[in-house]
Amino acid sequence: MKPKNLVNPRRLLHVCLMVISLWLMAVSPQRSWAVEKHNKVVIAYVTSWSTVMPDPAYLTHINYAFGHVNDSFDGVRIDNETRLKSITDLKKKHPHLKVLLSIGGWGSGRFSEMAADIVHREKFAKDCARVVKEFKLDGIDIDWEYPTNSSAGISAGEADTEHFTLLMRDIRKTIGKKKLLTLASVSSGQYIAFDQIKNDVDFVNIMTYDSGNPPYHHASLHRSALSGRTTCAEAVKAHIAAGMPAEKLVLGIPFYGRGNKTDIKGFIDYKDLLNLQGFEQKWDDVAKAHYLVNAEGTLVLTFETPESIALKCAYVHELGLLGAMYWEYAGDTEGGVLRDAVYRGIIR
Question: Residue 2 region, left (φ>0) first, then alpha (ψ -120 to 50), else beta?
C-alpha cells in the first residue's frame, strides 16, 4: 500500500517533460504550428551563387534565384542545378517548407520574344511543369523585370503586358492548380495587368526597395522629405488599386543598404554595413527608416534594421497582407538578426 502523499516518480518525470516541451514550443520558431495558426508567409530569395544554406525554421517559402528563358525562347535554363537540389532537399526534414524556382531577375531577358510567340510561350509553360516535377518544386515565381520596359538592357515590346497575362495563364494550365504560381512586381505596380491575372496567381511579391539612392531612402515605409520614388505604403496601395487583393500581396524587405557610391559603395549587405566606421546613424521617424550620415550631415546610406522591419511587419498585419519576403537570405548576419525580426513580426 502506497502512502497517499507520495509523488509517483514516473508521473513527475512525465509532467516535467511536458512542461519542457511546451516551453520549447513557445520559444522556438516552429514553422508548421505558426503557419497553421496565422496563415501568413515569410519568403526568402536564396541565390544560386551563395553558399549559405537557409534555415527553414524561419521561413515558409524559398524562391530560388534564378532560372531563365533559354536561348531558343522555348524552355527554362537553371543556374547551379546542384544548389537547387540541395535547397529542395531541405523539405525532407522540413515538410512545411515550399520551394519555388524564380525565373528572371534584373537583366534576364528573352521574356518578350518568348511570350509574344504562342508556340514558344506554350513550350516554355510546359517546360516550367517539367522543371517543377523534375526538381520536386512547389511552384514557379516569374520575375520579369519588366514587361514593356527595356531599362535592364533586355528587349521589350508594346504588347508585353498582354503577353505576360497569357504567359501566366499558360503556366497555370501546365503546372496545375495545386502548385504555386507567383510573381515579383516593381513597387509602382506598373507593367502588369493585375486585374487580369489575379485569379491565376497565388500571390505577388512586391519589390518595395530600390526606390531611391542617397540622399533619399530606398525602402521607407511612409513618405517623408527623404523618401525615394515610392514608399512601401504607396506600393501596396498601387497594387490594390490595380486590382490585386490585399490578401495576395507580399511586402518586400531588403537585406542590404544603398550607399551614395562616394562614401559607401552602391550596394552593401546588412552584415557588412555593421562594420562601417566614421558615420552617424539616424532615424527618420516619419519614413520609419534608419540611415547613416557623414561628417557633413549628408545621408550616405539607407538601410533596414530590426526596428524598421518590426514596423513593416505590423503594417502587413494592419492591411491584411499575406506576408513578407526579403532579398536576399545571405545578406543577413550569421546569427540572423534580420530574418529573426521578419519571422517574429509576421508569424507572431
Answer: beta
Residue type, 315: Y
Domain of 57, CATH number, reads: 3.20.20.80
Domain range for 310:
36-255+305-346
Gap between the Cα atoms of 154 and 143, Å rounded? 13
Rounded-to-integer distance, Cα 75 and Cα 126, Å: 8
Report yes or no on 291 lying in a domain: no
In degrees and rounded to multiples of 5, residue 44 shows phi and psi of: -115, 130
Q: At residue 193, does pLDDT exceed 80?
A: yes
pTM, two decimal places: 0.89
Joined together, the cell numbers standing for residue 204 give 505577388
In the structure grid, which three cell numbers stand for residue 195, read together? 486585374
Residue of 220, 218, 216 whose CA lies nearest to 288: 220
Which cell goes with 300? 550616405
| pLDDT over 70 (residue 8) | no
In a domain, 150, yes or no: yes
In a domain, 218, yes or no: yes
pLDDT at 2 over 50: no
Asked if residues 48 and 66 have their Cβ atoms less than 8 Å apart, the reply is yes
Assigned domain for 286 exists: no
In the three-class reduction of DSSP (H, G, I as helix; E, B as strand; rest coil), residue 186 is classed as: strand
Work out how many domains the chain is built from and give that number: 1
Q: What is the CA radius of gyration of the chain?
A: 22
